[in-house]
Write a sequence for this structure.
């Protein structure tokens, strides 16, 4: 017998072992030395144990320039395939920094495209783990074409299957635009960065001295630029938390969000919510307490926690089912809307709407933030994004007004006028054009010099409008509810909306004010 | 009997009095400031009268306002609680003039005993041994230094009208005497409106033991045993118990009889407390008499079965005592732990804010109070008692205006050891979130060998926690039990996660039985065999721990049995595990699969950011004054600024030598926790 099955099996095992070793033990040790796990270790932690099925393990590049023909590592710097997260199918690619610095070649990109195509076809999320030095310069335009192919697929997949990007090392230059078009970007503190042009180029062109961490580290992108949706302490935590996020998300836009067994009474009464809103309308309180007390088991997955903290976005479950939460945060800037909070919330609302995730909106908004920086920055267009996002959403929407719902911001925040299905108000709600003092000063301009009269007018205005009853007389508020029973009321409202169906006129696509 | 009684107080003591009044069929009237509109005592009372803005000196201690409330409500009697107007002779006088009964002693007794200098003289005249000291008034700081030096350090500077640790300082040298005199004087002026200070020898190695007396207006007086109150922090009581583990029957009798004699010497008629310092040879010295209901009165009630508030009301109504000295028996053991809104990890500084969670352990009735039918409330009966006197509720607000004590948790059991064990479990079950509080510290004390043996002095906290409290390091056997419990809990949570909808049929995730648990620097590889009634956790080398309990994911309290003992954990969420609080420890517990654990070991240790060159505001409060300016060189221990919160002036000091480079606050600023006050180089 010449070439026996046994030999072939042995050869397969040898080739697998070589591929698994990536760039070799020395580079693996260096990767660990930087506090990072290898591409395969990351896949291990991301997926259920023993569930990973790899594709294209033996793919190599075809470049023959600059001596590249001499080094043809199996896999070409990226590990791709599929597996499960808590039994649910996901596709994954994980760039291997130990192999040619994880640089993107034509074939590297092809491997990524293959699993993305399958993900879209089979309706499952794509999770990309980015740890790459950038384009494979030796390949020139072939490498760029590879990026382009990936970008195109990101766009095609957008709104079809959830796409999650993990930045777990460098991600620079054109490479940033693939994560940029995915639904969520997560970074690892101290070991990842993203930028279009690096510190050296910045220094040459603008004479600015800035470190990679300052320019594009996790802190920058979670607090300043809002490019990233979250950052984690290390690889292990990051991968565990992405598993947690996937548990909230539907597999694709044709499926409802997942349901999981829950250990929390949907009718749970929370008497302490009756005292959440302070007596003084100018005293802040923490809206997160309401979110945590509404959610099943107090479980809240916050998105963009460090950015535009005047609005809170994230996922909870009610009766085991995913609900997206958008909530003004009175603790920060009195919970007002501004450019950053509008953009942050608008993107979140559109994600929920794209993937059939019902939206719960909690309102305590005094209005839009005034000022030249806001107007010059285009708060009109950015504010319109949130208005547009709520207005176009067709998923079940329940709104609870806890305190202020003033002016245009009231309309923007998922009001009845924008097709919110349920609009509840707490007794402490004030649905009005503006605060009593400001309103009085306009209506009774003639009495501006008379503080006594003005105080009386203010009191009259408060009496008339600083309550939920005028709005509920008009039907803009469906019902005034007790704070303590909010969980029960909201859960029942969503339960009643499970078969909601809205038909809209045909359009190629909308034209949201970008 | 009175038809209507007004309680001129707030917080837990107002609630406590309301309970007894209700039992006696008396209508109750609460008073409240703006800050207390939604307070528990207002909710509990039959009627409530608003008496002014939040600061006590504009509401609760303004006699005219309280008198107005009495008039408008038609109350026939007033219970003053403790603090506020409880030992104010002018208030007693005003009540007398208005023909309203004061549920407390006659004003003469208040006057004589309320002033520490006068009371000491009377005690001396009555032949009660007293501590050496200077009884006269002190003009200024320099005179204070001179007198202190004459008495000999250490000395104690005390506000003449003081109590509860306010306006009280210990000085070990001239500098401290000078500084202590000034701050005592300021605090006394702010808290009591009386800035007289006196100085006495500070007796070292003392125990604080006090006698509860009860007298009527017909010349009858009895004592109801003692309370040991030696566990104090800066003269503020933290843990009390009755009886004292130190006293013998003869000393108890001698102290009791002296206490009653002293009370009768001033015509006392109500419940009162005579405080003594007791040294290691059981010599006792009169300290002071508190002419009111004492904070720690519940421990006496729990071992005697006497409802002291009821007795006070009856005496105020002119009734004769129906209890004789022979009727008084001390049964079992009672311990009280005071829950303070003070952050033990920040030097016990006051913490204010919203109680986002407040779930005390369930009350259980047992012992003399139950036997004599004087138990307040509807708790089920048991072998050991749990009683929680509280004035707050979940969703309530802890404001900066009043005393930071929010609850008094008491346990009773036939023996001291059982009462301590019951307290440990009760503390572990007590859920308080939203504010900093001393529950972890109380747990630590309950496990401290010196406390357990009963061998403590008033210096216990200062000596055993000289660097402050940094949490408890749990012993190894306890870690193993927690590891086993957390592994079992994590497994349940993971199985639930694996039951999410939308799975690939027949390719479900298999949750394994092998786990690694990492906590407090220790690491355990273990495996779990689960069955319908619980789980058996194998820790290797043949050690198995049986874990049972009804914890489900999301529960913030896990009441389990691990091995053959109860284990109560407060459970929080962290990535890949739990934040566990139990027995005074606050630890992160990571539960990982063997593969996760292997890879987690490769992750770098990250250090928290360096804040050592900044002075951070340790609590919300008002900047009273700044002692240094930019460019000043400061020495370790030098005062940098004074922050006032909860009526206490807190002097912030330099932790090391340095130069001030930046000052971000000015006097009058109100600051939040962790605001940067100044920076150093």
């Amino acid at each position: 017998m010449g070439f026996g099955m046994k030999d072939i099996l042995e050869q397969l095992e040898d080739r697998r072992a070589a591929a698994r070793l990536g760039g070799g033990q020395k580079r693996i040790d260096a990767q660990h030395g930087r506090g990072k796990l290898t591409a395969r270790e990351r896949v291990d932690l991301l997926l259920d144990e023993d569930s990973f099925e790899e594709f294209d393990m033996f793919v190599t590049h075809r470049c023959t320039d600059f001596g590249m023909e001499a080094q043809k590592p199996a896999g070409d710097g990226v590990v791709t395939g599929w597996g499960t997260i808590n039994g649910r199918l996901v596709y994954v690619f994980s760039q291997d920094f130990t192999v040619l610095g994880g640089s993107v070649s034509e074939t590297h990109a092809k491997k990524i495209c293959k699993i993305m195509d399958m993900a879209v076809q089979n309706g499952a999320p794509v999770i990309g783990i980015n740890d790459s030095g950038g384009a494979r310069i030796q390949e020139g335009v072939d490498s760029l074409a590879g990026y382009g192919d990936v970008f195109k697929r990101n766009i095609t997949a957008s709104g079809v299957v959830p796409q999650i990007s993990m930045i777990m090392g460098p991600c620079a230059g054109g490479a940033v635009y693939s994560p940029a078009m995915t639904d969520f970007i997560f970074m690892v503190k101290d070991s990842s960065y993203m930028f279009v042009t690096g510190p050296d180029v910045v220094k040459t062109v603008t004479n600015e001295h800035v470190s990679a961490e300052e320019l594009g580290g996790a802190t920058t992108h979670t607090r300043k630029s809002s490019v990233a949706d979250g950052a984690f302490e290390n690889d292990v935590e990051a991968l565990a938390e992405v598993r947690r996020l996937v548990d909230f998300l539907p597999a694709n836009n044709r499926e409802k969000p997942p349901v999981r067994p829950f250990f929390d009474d949907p009718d749970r009464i929370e008497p302490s919510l009756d005292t959440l809103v302070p007596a003084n309308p100018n005293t802040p309180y923490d809206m997160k307490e309401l979110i945590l007390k509404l959610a099943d088991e107090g479980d809240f997955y916050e998105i963009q926690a460090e950015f535009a903290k005047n609005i809170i976005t994230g996922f909870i479950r009610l009766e085991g089912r995913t609900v997206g939460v958008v909530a003004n945060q009175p603790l920060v800037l009195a919970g007002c809307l501004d450019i950053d909070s509008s953009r942050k919330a608008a993107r979140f609302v559109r994600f929920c709407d794209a993937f059939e995730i019902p939206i719960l909106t909690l309102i305590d908004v005094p209005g839009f933030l005034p000022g030249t920086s806001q107007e010059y920055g285009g708060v009109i267009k950015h504010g319109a994004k949130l208005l547009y996002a709520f207005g176009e959403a067709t998923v079940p929407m329940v709104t609870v007004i806890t305190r202020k719902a003033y002016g245009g911001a009231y309309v923007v925040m998922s009001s009845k006028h924008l097709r919110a299905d349920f609009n509840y108000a707490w007794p402490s709600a004030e649905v009005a054009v503006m605060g009593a003092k400001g309103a009085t000063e306009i209506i009774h301009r003639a009495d501006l010099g008379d503080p006594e009269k003005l105080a009386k007018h203010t009191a009259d205005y408060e009496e008339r409008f600083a309550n939920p009853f005028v709005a509920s007389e008009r039907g803009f508020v469906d019902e005034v509810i007790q704070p303590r029973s909010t969980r029960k009321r909201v859960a029942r409202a969503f339960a009643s909306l499970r078969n909601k169906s809205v038909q809209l006129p045909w359009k190629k696509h909308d034209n949201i004010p970008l | 009997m009175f038809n209507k009684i007004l309680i001129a107080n707030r917080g837990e003591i107002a609630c406590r009095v309301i309970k007894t009044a209700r039992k006696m069929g008396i209508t109750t009237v609460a008073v409240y400031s703006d800050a207390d509109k939604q307070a528990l005592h207002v909710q509990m009372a039959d009627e409530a009268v608003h008496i002014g803005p939040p600061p006590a000196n504009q509401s609760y201690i303004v006699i005219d306002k309280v008198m107005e409330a009495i008039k408008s409500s038609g109350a026939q009697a007033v219970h003053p609680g403790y603090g506020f107007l409880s030992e104010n002779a002018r208030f007693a006088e005003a009540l007398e003039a208005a023909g309203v009964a004061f549920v407390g002693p006659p004003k003469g007794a208040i006057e004589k005993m309320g002033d520490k200098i006068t009371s000491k003289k009377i005690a001396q005249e009555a032949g009660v041994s007293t501590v050496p000291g200077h009884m006269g008034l002190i003009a200024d700081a320099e005179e204070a230094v001179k007198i202190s030096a004459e008495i000999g350090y250490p000395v104690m500077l005390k506000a003449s009208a003081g109590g509860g640790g306010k306006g009280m300082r210990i000085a070990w040298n001239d500098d401290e005497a000078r500084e202590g005199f000034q701050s005592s004087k300021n605090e006394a002026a702010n808290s009591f409106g009386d800035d007289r200070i006196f100085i006495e020898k500070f007796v070292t190695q003392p125990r604080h033991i006090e006698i509860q007396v009860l007298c009527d207006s017909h010349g009858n007086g009895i004592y109801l045993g003692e309370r040991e109150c030696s566990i104090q922090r800066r003269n503020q009581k933290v843990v009390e118990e009755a009886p004292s583990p130190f006293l013998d029957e003869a000393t108890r009798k001698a102290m009791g009889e002296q206490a009653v004699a002293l009370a009768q010497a001033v015509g006392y008629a109500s419940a009162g407390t005579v405080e003594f310092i007791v040294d290691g040879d059981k010599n006792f010295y009169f300290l002071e008499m508190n002419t009111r209901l004492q904070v720690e009165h519940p421990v006496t009630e729990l071992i005697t079965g006497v409802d002291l508030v009821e007795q006070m009301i009856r005496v105020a109504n002119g009734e004769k005592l129906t209890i004789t000295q022979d009727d008084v028996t001390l049964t079992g053991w009672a311990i009280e732990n005071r829950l303070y809104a003070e952050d033990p990890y920040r030097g016990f500084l006051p913490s204010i804010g919203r109680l986002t969670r407040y779930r005390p352990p369930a009350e259980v009735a047992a012992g003399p109070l139950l036997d004599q039918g004087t138990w307040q409330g509807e708790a089920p009966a048991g072998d050991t008692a749990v009683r929680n006197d509280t004035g707050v509720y979940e969703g309530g607000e802890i404001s900066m205006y009043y005393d930071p004590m929010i609850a008094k948790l008491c346990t009773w059991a036939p023996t001291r050891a059982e009462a301590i064990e019951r307290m440990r479990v009760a503390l572990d079950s007590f859920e308080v979130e939203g504010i900093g509080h001393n529950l972890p510290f109380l747990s630590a004390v309950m496990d401290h060998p010196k406390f357990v043996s009963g061998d403590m002095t008033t210096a216990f906290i200062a000596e055993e926690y000289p660097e402050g409290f940094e949490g408890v390091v749990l012993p190894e056997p306890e870690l193993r039990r927690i590891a086993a419990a957390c592994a079992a809990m994590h497994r349940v949570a993971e199985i639930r996660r694996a039951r999410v909808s939308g799975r690939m049929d027949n390719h479900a995730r298999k949750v394994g039985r092998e786990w690694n648990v990492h906590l407090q620097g220790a690491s355990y590889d273990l495996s779990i065999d689960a069955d319908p009634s619980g789980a058996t956790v194998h820790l290797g080398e043949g050690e198995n721990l049986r874990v049972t309990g009804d914890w489900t994911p999301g529960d913030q309290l896990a009441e389990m049995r691990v091995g053959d003992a109860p284990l109560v954990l407060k459970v929080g969420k962290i990535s890949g595990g739990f934040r566990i609080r139990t027995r005074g420890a606050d630890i992160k517990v990571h539960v990982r699969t063997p593969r996760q654990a292997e890879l987690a070991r490769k992750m770098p240790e990250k250090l928290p950011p360096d804040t050592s060159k900044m002075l951070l505001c340790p609590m919300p409060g008002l900047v009273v004054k700044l002692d240094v300016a930019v460019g000043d060189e400061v020495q370790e221990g030098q005062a940098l600024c004074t922050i006032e919160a909860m009526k206490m002036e807190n002097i912030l000091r330099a932790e090391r030598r340095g130069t001030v480079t930046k000052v971000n606050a000015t006097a009058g600023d109100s600051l939040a926790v962790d605001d940067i006050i100044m920076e150093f180089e």
